[in-house]
Amino acid sequence: MKEIYSFLGDVEKPGRYIGSELNIIKKEPHEKMIRYGFIFPDVYEIGMSHLGLHILHGALNELENVWCERAFAVGADMEEKMREKSIPIFTLESKTPLKELDFVGFTLQYEMSYTNILNIMEISDIPLFSKDRGEEDPIIMFGGPCAYNVEPIADFADIVMIGEGEETLPEVMNIFSKYKEKAYPGRKKDFLLEVARNVKGAYIPAFYEAHYDTDGKFKEIKPIYEGVPPKIQKRIIRNMDEVYFPQKLLVPNIDVVHSRIMLELFRGCTRGCRFCQAGIIYRPIRERSKEKLLEIAETLIRSTGHEEISLTSLSSSDYTQIEELLEELDQKYSCENLSLSLPSLRLDNFSLDMAQKVQKARRSSLTFAPEAGTQRLRDVINKGVTKEDLIKTSKKAFESGWSSLKLYFMTGLPTETYEDLDGIADLVYSVIDANREVNNGRLSPRFKVTVGTAVFVPKPNTPFQWFSQDTQETMKEKQRYLKEKLRHKNISYDYHDYDVSFLEATMARGDRRLSSVIHSAFKKGCKFDSWREHFKYDLWMEAFEENNINPFDIANGNWDTDQPLAWDHIDTGVSKAFLIREWNEALKENTTGDCRENCLGCDINTDIGKGLC
């Protein structure tokens, strides 16, 4: 690995590849030690900003016989040098090639990272398809939110972990420790069978077969080995105060997207937005106690030197003791110039006092997500906020010194009309009027409204999984329409690239046949597909055509609620009957309340979440 230092000065951000960060974990390898590589399939700056990496990396390293190291996707310039000199991707901690590890685990945070996974394996000289890997090749593991429909990349995986990994990964390591010392034919298969039969939440795709109707429609996935569960049930952490959380965070040695302490308040969400996958797959809600959070904060402040704490969760302002927590953090650390941030504020429980505590020194911009422009469509998606919430909140913010707002919406939502798009413009101009009203008829200096619109992607395990995504022609016309509506010197408007969102929808709703498409696209040169400058739509379309797969049927099709889905064998704990009920409520434009106030019968409490709701 010494050779890499000869050209690091010639590549962008060499700090991505050096390691040696503050709090890095190094161990002395020995024969019985299990070597695990945690891989984030994007560049260092993005991966090091992901809390899940820090948690699982730390949890595995708590095990005496496991050394978990890290690696990331390399930049195009670094890849060119590595391929030219036949240097494989290596871990940051020990500079060990990934091929020499026992496990290589990829976190699946986003469908558009799939080709990066193949690129990392190819540079590392690891066979891409699980069927082609031998006894000496590392075991490839996948986990994360996209694992809830892993079928499009199932052919590349040896093990897929469904749910939260703090408990399941140590169980897998414990089983593997018995096989580590054995060296006989079939060792890997025996290990995988034992995992499949004994570790709840472990899915071994090679032990299941996908079946299709005579017309080519997906029919079902069935196990092909005795004792392998027909349905894989997700794993969850039941007590957030007792589960592992790092005492020290790795401190990056270059600027990353989020260089701060991330304090996880709770997991889950009770709001029930019908487009939101995270709100389903992370149920039920489980909070950390205020006392535990204060203890973690104190430890991490002393061990990292970070000057900001971000209070993270799906809807952080819903934490039941949020105001008390902010008050105590503010009182304890205000003299140390420690700043607090609350990245997910809600319009309907916005507290000016809360916002003032998290942006004491710099009141530049607050961010909210109304998601839809009209109350009718907000009722369809079950987003429990109103125009009045936005105007009232805007006035509060402007009166207290904030100069700007950021508003995020989704376009292409089920049942959306042009009246709903007009509603987006109406909300934005109402915010401008609110600023004028607060400032005696004039807009305040530096006033700005930043508007962002994402393209609706139907995600698995949501009430909207059966709805179609708008076609390219329809969506691009809507984006042009909104662009004209939002022409104003105080409005900045940005929208997601439809082509990328279309591919995301195809991957989200696809079945196992997409593995061949992904492989073909990768071989054509597709990678970093979430980066606009790298995305190659035409090459993807060629890959679909060559494999006789119609992506428009997948992304743009309205599906029947009784048709089999490629992820039906994955059990999130939320019943399909509940999702269908919510789908019907959406069509009726009815809202469903917060399940903290009244149980909605999603069935999470019958097994997976028993005793927690």
Could you characterize the architecture of this molecule?
- This protein is α/β, with parallel strands linked by helices and 613 residues long.
- It folds into two domains: 232 residues, Rossmann fold, CATH 3.40.50; 236 residues, Aldolase class I (TIM Barrel, Alpha-Beta Barrel), CATH 3.20.20.
- It has a six-stranded mixed β-sheet. It has a four-stranded parallel β-sheet with strand order 15-16-17-18. Strands 10-13-14 form a three-stranded parallel β-sheet, covered by helices on one side.
- α4 crosses α16 and α16 crosses α17.
- The radius of gyration is 24 Å and the shape is globular.
Category by helix and strand content: alpha/beta
| N/C terminus separation | 51 Å
The CATH superfamily of the largest domain turns out to be Aldolase class I
CATH architecture label of the largest domain: Alpha-Beta Barrel
CATH class of the largest domain: Alpha Beta
What is the overall number of helices? 19
Helix proportion: 25-40%
Rg, Cα atoms, Å: 24 Å
Beta content comes to 5-15%
The major sheet is characterized as:
6 strands, mixed
Q: Which fold name fills CATH's third level, the topology of the largest domain? A: TIM Barrel
Extended strand count: 19
Mean pLDDT rating: 93
Overall structural domain count:
2
Residue stretches low in confidence (pLDDT < 50, at least 5 long) are none
Q: Which strand order does the major sheet show?
A: 2-1-3-4-5-6
Shape: globular
Quick overview of this protein structure:
The protein is α/β, with parallel strands linked by helices and 613 residues long. The protein is 33% helix and 14% strand. 44% of the residues are buried.
